[in-house]
Amino acid sequence: MIKNALDEKTIQTIKQKMSEGLLPQWVLSDPQIHELELQKIFGHTWQFLAHESELKESGSYVTRWMADDPVLVVRNSKGEIKAFLNSCTHRGTHLCTADFGNKKTFTCPYHGWSYNLDGDLIGIVAGNKVYGQEMKKDEWGLRPIPKIGIYRGMIFGNLDPHAIPLTDYLGDMKWYFDILLGRSDGGMEVRGVPQRWVAQANWKMTSENFAADPYHVQTTHRSTVEMGISPKDPLYAGYGHQVVLGHGHGINVITSATGQSAHPFQGMPESMWPMFKRNLNPEQFEILSKTTVFVGGVFPNLSFVSPVHGTEGHLHNYLNFRVWRPLGPDKVEVWCWFMIDKAAPEEYKEEAYKGYIGSFGPSGTLEQDDTEIWARVVQASKGIMARDKTLSYNNVFNYLMGFDRVEPDENFPGPGVAYPTCYLDALSRSMHEYWLEMLTRDLHIEGGENH
Ligand code: FES
Ligand SMILES: [Fe+2]
């Protein structure tokens, strides 16, 4: 099946089109490509699981997914974070069926085996009577997620025991995460539980829409302009820098037309500014002071946005992290976290949460604008013309914005390749390149191997 999905000729065609700033439309809707992505990308990349503030004390747990792998994340009695496949080692049902909670032990709902917070099997119903003395409990502990990494409270897992460390994978994204997650004393905290819902969409499209496509904002979210929330200037989401980082990661650092923010420090209370100065280096502090919106992503399927909402006198900022869990080529489960500076005043946090619910929550206006578009993209990518692999109908997407035209800005103070505009497809093209690199890594192809 995998051989059929990507033979040498098809790979060469995709590469050729990508080098021209294009992407074949069929890769969005092809079930075999989806299967290959699960194995080659989701089986080997770092995926976001939870924020440490969701696991406050010993015994706190949350249940999550890494694509099709159910994951149980717990804080053990020593305070360490552990993650296991949420599948009982006896006959495989979900060990834990709740979304979150606190437990000393986990007991399986099927035959009652129980495990401690370190995943050790500690109890078997009618143990010696039915299994005999020789049943070795220590061979039947929960299966750990091969790798766990934490950066500034963000817990990631990796199914590949040979994966590079999380900090290497994040690379220069850490510098920007330091601004978003490390500017305040005590860092960020998750408020409420992550909301989740299923959308008709391809995960590549949603990741790209968030991380790399500020160009859509002035049309898709036109209603915000008409309501007077967003500026009338059609270039308004394009001011600032699009920064392309390694491993398909990137961020848009969006300012106003003047290169400054209309609202310094994203409208956060002035009392917090000295704290930002203390926690950030001068370059990071300067960027934070000027930026209106940070929006970006960590490949493959973690996106984030840190916007400003509200009206003068009632401005607020928050950090929305989201995971696009692929459920098929045309379906994602959206996981959506609201995060805010732990050190912010309580009323401010409350107001910001309401702002989030009304914009990027599942019923939020901005969210609904995007959801309809994503569904229509996959709907329009399933037919004979769109799925033709020979591309005889010219069924390719256009990623030509800024192609060969925009030079990096050497004076941008942050790491990465920073282009002096956010209306640009450089980050999308970089995501596609890494996607194809991962997809074809060690792929055994008829007539030879591709590395
Ligand atoms: S499946 Fe869990 S105890 Fe049998
Ligand atoms: Fe959008």
From TrEMBL:
Gene3D superfamilies: Naphthalene 1,2-dioxygenase Alpha Subunit, Chain A, domain 1, Rieske [2Fe-2S] iron-sulphur domain. It comes from the Bacteria. Pfam families: Rieske, Ring_hydroxyl_A. The keyword Iron-sulfur applies. Keywords: 2Fe-2S, Aromatic hydrocarbons catabolism, Dioxygenase, Iron, Iron-sulfur, Metal-binding, NAD, Oxidoreductase. PROSITE patterns: RIESKE, RING_HYDROXYL_ALPHA. CDD domains: RHO_alpha_C_NDO-like. This is Aromatic ring-hydroxylating dioxygenase subunit alpha. The lineage of its organism: Bacteria, Bacillati, Bacillota, Bacilli, Bacillales.
